[in-house]
Every structure is written in C-alpha cells, then in structure tokens.
Amino acid sequence: MKYIYLSAFFLFFCIQEAKAALPNGTVAPNWTLTDLNGNTHNLYNILNSGKHVVIDFSATWCPPCWSYHNSHALSTLWNLYGPNGSNEIMVFFIEGDITTNTACLYGTAGCQGGTQGNWVAGTPYPIIDLLTSEVRNQYQISYWPTIYGIRAQDKRVFEVGQKSVAQWESWLFGSFEMDFTSAITNNTCRGNGSVALSVTGGHGGKFFQWSNGGNTSTISNLQSGTFSCRITDSNNYFLDTPNFTVSGVPNFVAGLVEQRNISCNGASDGILQVAGSGGGGGYSYDWSNGESTARIEDLAPGNYIVTINDSYNCDVTRSFTITQPQTLFGSAFSYNVPCNGTAGYVELAGLFGTAPYLYDIGGTPQANPYFYNLPPGEYDYTVTDANNCLYTGTFEIEQVPGPTAVAALPAPLSCTATQTTVSGAGSATGSNITYLWTTTDGSIVSGANTINAVVNAIGTYKIRVTNTTNNCYKEATTVVQSIVALPTAAVVDANPLTCSTTQTSLDGSGSSQGQEFSYLWTTPNGNIVSGNTSLVAVVDEPGDYTLQVTNANNGCIKTTSKAVSENVALPPLSVTNGQLTCTTTSTQICGTTDQGLDIVWQVGEQQITSQCITVSQVGDYQARVAGSNGCISTRIATVTASSDLPLVAIQTPEEINCVTQQITITAGLQGEQTDFTIGWTTQNGTIVSGENTLTPVVSKGGIYTLTVVRNSNGCSTVSSATVQEDRDLPTSAFNHTQNGQDLVLTSNITGVYTSLLWNLGNGITSSDPNVTVQFPTTGTYNICLTATNDCGDHVACTEVLYIAKLGSQVVSQNASCFGTADGSITVTPENGLPNYTIVWEGPNGFTSTEWTLTGLMAGTYTGIITDGQGTQITITRDIVQPSNITETSVDIVNDTDNGNKGSVTPVIEGGTGDLTYLWSNGSTGSKLENVGEGSYTVDVTDENGCKKTFGPYVVENTVNANEISFVKEFMMVPNPTSDKVVITISFVQDVAKGQISIYNAMGQLMTNMNFEGNVQKTLDISNYMNGLYTVEVRKGNDSAMKKLVVIH
Length: 1048
What we know:
Layout: H1 2-15, E1 26-27, E2 32-34, E3 40-42, H2 43-48, E4 52-58, H3 63-69, H4 73-81, E5 89-95, E6 127-129, H5 134-138, E7 146-150, E8 156-159, H6 165-172, E9 179-185, E10 193-200, E11 207-210, E12 218-222, E13 225-227, E14 229-232, E15 238-240, E16 244-246, E17 253-260, E18 270-277, E19 284-287, E20 295-299, E21 302-309, E22 315-322, E23 329-335, E24 344-351, E25 358-360, E26 370-374, E27 377-384, E28 390-397, E29 420-423, E30 433-439, E31 444-446, E32 452-455, E33 459-467, E34 472-480, E35 497-498, E36 504-507, E37 517-522, E38 528-530, E39 536-539, E40 543-551, E41 557-564, E42 566-567, E43 574-575, E44 578-580, E45 587-592, E46 599-603, E47 606-609, E48 612-615, E49 619-626, E50 632-641, E51 648-650, E52 656-657, E53 663-664, E54 667-669, E55 676-682, E56 687-689, E57 697-698, E58 702-710, E59 716-723, E60 725-726, E61 734-739, E62 742-747, E63 755-759, E64 765-766, E65 770-773, E66 779-789, E67 792-802, E68 807-813, E69 823-830, E70 837-841, E71 847-848, E72 852-856, E73 859-866, E74 872-879, ...
Parallel strand pairs: 4-5, 5-6, 35-42, 44-50, 52-60, 76-82
Antiparallel strand pairs: 1-8, 2-3, 4-7, 7-8, 9-10, 10-12, 11-14, 13-16, 14-15, 17-18, 18-20, 19-21, 21-22, 23-24, 24-26, 25-27, 27-28, 29-32, 30-33, 31-32, 33-34, 36-39, 37-40, 38-39, 40-41, 43-45, 45-48, 46-47, 46-49, 49-50, 51-54, 53-57, 55-58, 56-57, 58-59, 61-62, 62-65, 63-64, 63-66, 66-67, ...
C-alpha cells in the first residue's frame, strides 16, 4: 500500500494542470544554455536559422516524464528532422528541477532528489540540466513534463504536450507552416467592403475568429473600419492577423429627425423629416409620395418610404407610418331645472381623439366636465383634445314643466291712448289655473286677477300663473312704455328785411329731428319763398310765421311762432342847384342828410365824398347817400348857365392806340361859330390841328380843354374832354414744369395781345396758349414765347432743363463654350440725370457695380441703374452658352487575330458648328479605324475652339481558340460603361465551372462570383469609381482577362 500511495502522489504531482504554463502564442523568452556535452546553445540563433524548436521540460523523478521519454517520440523526431536528418528542427531535454543534481540524469548512483533511471543513455538530442530557476520561471513551468514547440518564423511558443511523432509532424510541418494572404475591398456604398483571407499550410480544418464576430475566411458587407482575425487549425495552433483597414466613405445611414402624426382625424398635417449622415454627403431625397426634400409636410395618414442618395449614388431606404387618432366625439348629460327652480347642470365627456380634454360652453375652457348653475336654454358646447381637435354639440337645460306664463308686449301709451291692456294670452288656462298681475312702478286700473289687466302708467308688469294642483307657478313680465313725448319746436330770431337784405331765414334746427318728425311753416301775412316743410324756411316779406313739428310715432304736435320785421326806410337827402354866369364862373352845390351819413357826388368819372362841391361847368350832378340799412337815396343838383354864356357840349372822344394814332374831338356850340372865339389847350396831350375849331385833331392821350368866348360880351365857357391812349406792348412770360416725361409750358402774358407763338428750341412752334411737349434726350432747351399786338412783339426766352426718360444701351457677348466663364455685358446709360450708378446681381451670388462685366458664366444678370435724381430702371440680360459636347453612344469593334481590324465610332453631339476630331494615335475624323488592341481617346473641338476629351475606348483583340483553349467567346457590352455591363462567355466545353473576378487598377478585388456553364450576366457597376478594371475568368489553372472602362 505504501508503494502504491507514493506512485499515485508522483503521478498527481507531475500531470496536474495548474494552468500556469506560458500562454500559447507568447513569444518565447531567449536563453543561452550549455548541455551535458559542454555545447552552448542560444535559442534565438537557432530560430533565426529557420529551425523550429522542441523543448521537453521534465524532472528526473517524474514518472510521466520518464514514460514519455521512453516512448522515443522526440528521439525519432531528432533523427528524422534534426541536424543528422533533414536539419529542420532542434530538440532539447531540459531538467528543470534545480533540487535534483546532475547525477540523477545518469541513474540512481549519487542522485539527490530522485530519478526514474538513466535519462542520458540512448538520448540523441541535447540534455540541459538547469542550475538556476531563471529559465524555468520565464517559461512558467509548474508541472512536469511541460513540452513546448516554438515556431521559427515568429518565435511564438505553443504547449504541444506529450504527442506522437505524427502529431509532432502535424505541428512542426503543418501548423507552424500555416500562413495567409489577404485581399481588401474598400467600402464604397452601403457597407460593401470586405476582407478575404487565403490560408496556406496548417493542420486540418481552419477556423476564423474575426474582431467583428465573423467566422469565415471572408467577411463581407463591411462599413469602413479596422478588422482583425485569429486563424486556428485543428491543433489549436493559431495565427493573429494584423489590423486590416477597410477604407471608404463613412457609414451611410438615414436618421429620423422628426415624425409628427396627424393631429385630428381626417386632417392632413403629418410631418416627416429625415437626415442622411455619413456616405458621400450631398444627399437627395426621393419619397414615395413624389416629394424630394428632407422634410415633407401636410401628410395624410399612410405609409411613406424615402430613399436617400448620396454623392456616390449610394442609397438607403427607410419607411415610416403616419397615423391618425380616432375621430373625436363628445357627449352631454344635462340635468333640468326643477319646478320653480332657477338652474340645472350638465356633465360633458370626451371620447377618442387624444386625451386630455378641455370643455367649454361659451365661457372659459376647463378640464372639469361639470358645469353648474345653468338656467334653462339651449347651449353649444365644445370638446377640445390635446391636439386642439374640436367636437361641437348642443344640449338643452329644460325647466320641469309648470304652467305656461306669457306676458305679451302691450301697445304703448300715447297722446291719443292714455290706457293700454297687458295680456297673458298664451298662458296656461283651466279651472286649476289662477292669474295675478303686479307692478312696482306702474298703475293697474282693473283686471289684476284676470288674464288681461288694464293699466294707465308706464312701468313693468308681472303675471304669475299658478297651477293650484301642484302649487307650481311661472312668471312672465312685460313693460308698458309711453310715447307721450311732445316734440321740441324752437326757432331762432330772424334777421330783419332791409334794402340790402331782401330775404331772411327762419331756422328751426333746434327742434326735434329724426325720421319720425315732420315740419310745416305757415304765415297769415308774410311770404314763404322756400323750405315750408323743412327746418329752415326762406321768407321775403315781414309778418308772423309759425313752425309746426309733428311726431308721427305718437301723433304729438308742437308749434312755435316768430315775427319777421322790415327796415326799408330811405335816408333823407336834399340838394341845392347852381348857376354860372359871365361873372360867376364857378358855383357851389350842397347836399343835406342825417348826421353820420356821407354824401357822394359824381363829377364826371370822379366820385367826391363831401357835403358840398364847387363846379365850373354846367350840367347835372348826382348826390348819393346810403343809410345803415343799405337803402340809398339819390338827388340831382343842376348847374345852369345864364343866357349870356356860350352853350357848349363835347362828345366822348375815341381811344388812341397803335392803329388809330390820331382822333378828332367833336364839340357842339349853340349859335353861329362866327360869334365865338374857339380855343383848345392841353397840358399833357398833343393837338395836331384844328385847335381853334370845334373839331381838333389830336395824337396823344390827355385832357383837352375847350374855351369858347362870346365875342359880343366876352363871356366864356370852359369844357374839357379826356382822350384815352393805349400804346403798350404786351409783356411775354411763361411758367414751366416737368410732369413725368411731359414738359408743361403755361403762358403768363400781361397786357393786351392779339397772338402768341412758342419756339420750343427744337424746330417746333405752336400758337396754343399752353403747350405740352416731350423731348427725345436730356438737355437744356432754349424755349421762347412771343406775344404780339398792334404795337409789336415781345419775346421771353428761358433755358429749360429737360430730363428725358432714363434708358440704356446694352451690348452682351455669350459664353463661347459650355461651362466657360468668358461672357460679357457692357451698359451705356442714356438720358435721365447724369451721375449714374449701377448694381448687378447674377448667378451664384454674383454682384458688381461696373458698367462693363467680363468673365461671365452662363446665367441671368440683372442690373439696376440709378440716375442723379434717384430714378431707377432695371435691365436683364441672359448670358447663354452653347450646348455641351456630349457622347450619346459609342460602337467599338474589337481587333481579331492582331490584324488591326478594330474601330471606334462615337456619336458626338452639341457644341457650335462643325466638330473636328483628333485621336490619341494622331488620326482625324469622327471614326477611328484599322487599329489594334489598345486604349484610345479623342479630342473633339467645335468652331468656337471648345474642346472635350472622350474615352478611353478599349479595343481588345479577340483571342482564337488556339490562344485560350477553354474560352470560345468572351464579350462585355457596353464598354466603356457607366451603369451596367453585360458579360457574355461561352466555353469550348458545354459545362465549365469557375470564377469571374473584377479587380481595380490597384489589384483590389471588387467583385467575385462563381459560374457553371456558359455565362450571360448583367452586373451593376454604378458604384465603381472612374477607371480601368480587369475582368478575369478563371477555370482551374486557366484564365482569360479583358479590360473594362468605367466612366460616369
């Protein structure tokens, strides 16, 4: 039993898994150790020489160690693959228990610490006895045996354990030789990146553990990011890859910014707003309802799908559902007013819609559905939900039936009706019904306990109708009104009639006014000129006048009277006469009137205010005096001549003017002219001839005095005549104003003129008094007005500034080529007032204040011209560009058998005029012919020198069956392409399996697919970048390749 116990103890101690060994995959610590034969070994030198290393950490006393040692598995490895074999590996036995001495390796003799036997005998590989614990600790040896394999390439250590030769071979020449290559496809759209691993070597099946959770050799559908993988084979040997970076656009996602469902059932006020993020930016939105903005509004309930595209033409789709609440309803439960009560109440309720609710019956909305103290009647109510949706309804608060009480509106009291009846007609009737009329401010004459009562005063009257069966009663009131209201009749005193005031007004405006009032003026002794049925009457005779005002509503009448007086008394006036004699050559005549009044004498054309005047000529002289009432008295004072004086009379002479330059004054004389001496004199006139006759000729205006002397007695009479003269030229003048584009000229001539003539300064004349003219250009015009009469012309000229309508001349030059900025606009302002400015606006925020614009791109340009007086005009010019030079299609014929039979025929449109072509191989013409395999471009130029390059066009050489034994036909159309390409492949044999791969110019795999049999497949390459791609068809070890050009 003791022996068995010790064996079990050693067995347990040697093989228990303390789990403290060096972790697999750790870089092995380096060591330099000397074996029993004195040879020194450095671990890293061995590994750097390309040899894998096997280390058996054992203890001489360990039975399992001894058992595995005697299996000779490591000896066999050494012999086959060590220095004496293929020299691919090294094997070491390291005795790691420093408590045993070296003798224990040779057996029991001299052994301290225990041994299982002679470990050295028959062991071909180096044995090392550790004298310190340093290496043991570095390798974390906590149980025996611990057997490591160390891979030469990266010095990583793995605990292989007690394995057979075959198993060690699978580790050393399988697992340790495992390696990989990788292919990265960058993310271009919607997470289409991938990392593909191709593993060589290793033992058995391979297992993949990716950082993103993937477990296959290729991980796909990757967004941009960093990925790594651990590759593990059937021995649990593993390789950790480096980080693989999938580049590309940021993750393209569509986020919901706002979703607002329908507020009220049946409405269309839903809102959806989304926002793209990541991707290539420049998002566009395509909604299922046709909208194209990030935010769509006024939505009806339903499903909405949005597709967001970025600048890479990647898209992401999301769907949303706009919902609506159920239709809001409301209900009302009313509680009626009890018999003889005054108020009931109602309970409202909301249903559906969106709680909570507010209730309203016409006051302030409230959350409490109860409304109290409601008098009988019909009510409108509203229920408003949280979304402000409304439900409207009605309810009625009824009075618990009592007897009906009705008080009809009575006829009013009036001037003709002093009593009226208040009636309860319509009230309840029956043997159990009683009536009672009461009033607090009126007067009931009779019938207070009957259905009808007689009253004689205004006031409020109440009838109470009582049902004596249940003592319920109802009351009604009515109001008796009075229309016994006399109208007002008021007339103000009228001004008296006088000699100057022949009519006067009677004003009754202070009387009652309104549609119900009528008016009538009457008089027994006067005369009403007008207005006898209005408030104001006009009269022209003194007398008594009465105004009658009638109120048609109540028949009441009011009158008032006024007297109109008259003051037409003439002021007193008397005059004295006079006589001239031979010795009395002047006389005084006088007038007499009341004090304070002035006497005005008429002497020829003079009016002299004086009581007395002295005159020296015979004739009648009128005296006039005006009283305070405007009445005028006139009298004639006569001055006579005695018989001894000559009697002379002078006719009124004609006027002298520029036409009539001389006139004859004609005088009359009683008697024979030979009995008299006649003589004319003047102080301010000119006598041409006949100064001693009764008919002198004069040529100038003035006063001419005639003295006639009777020869027999020497008595003389002096008379005078005044000759008027008008020889003045008219004075020409005019005013001018500009109204818009009209220049208005208004003549302002003083004096007498017979004609006028305008000279407008531009060759145009006019004889109209007022002229309106427009000039074509701004400028100063010398305008003259000539006024003419018999005496001649008078000319007035004025320099007039005329501002013509602001205008401009515009010259523009369009862009020469599509997309170029070489257009121009030149503006020259015209008319208006100088000191011009211009402000331009154009496409893409263009602004300028220059009169000449150059370097303009296509678009609409708007300029605002302002002149010196602030007048503005707007001009607009469109700079257009030729149509773009574009390729609508291309036909490529590939070469065959390298015979230069290929051709490229692009269809080019647009530009200006005829197009010229220059191909990259020097050819000209619209079609490239007789070319071999290669890539070609063409420069297309129009008549404006606009040039655009198209291509590259790839011409391939069709390979015959002798060149590619397994392919019969290999075609790609269209090529170049921008969207899709159709790949058609037929094989020599009917059935073929293989792969089609597309690589970009950097050798990165873009697409990989398997096929079986002939191929005709359409590929979507819209997310490919512009460039040249290689399409490879592989079947086993055979492959065929063609070039694909992608141009967007």
